[in-house]
Specification:
The chain crosses the membrane at residues 6-24. One of its GO terms (cellular component) is proton-transporting ATP synthase complex. One of its GO terms (molecular function) is proton transmembrane transporter activity. Helix content is 42%, strand content 0%. The protein contains one helix and no strands. The radius of gyration is 27 Å and the shape is elongated. It has one helix spanning 7-29. It has a domain at 1-30.
């Protein structure tokens, strides 16, 4: 069963995680968010119940 042979796949897994950790992740973490969180308090709206015509 070739699925149980870890020889080629383990190396591919290690290489892909190395590339992700050393090259791609620092580039992604360098981005600044375009919409930073706001410090304004949330506005709560008062809702009124729906007036059903048949009740």
């Amino acid at each position: 069963m070739p699925q149980l042979n870890p020889n080629p796949w383990f190396l591919i897994l290690l290489m892909s995680w190395t590339i992700f950790s050393l090259i791609i992740q620092p580039k992604l973490l360098a981005f600044t968010p375009t919409n930073p969180p706001s410090t304004k308090p949330e506005m709560t709206t008062k809702t009124t119940p729906w007036a059903w015509p048949w009740t």
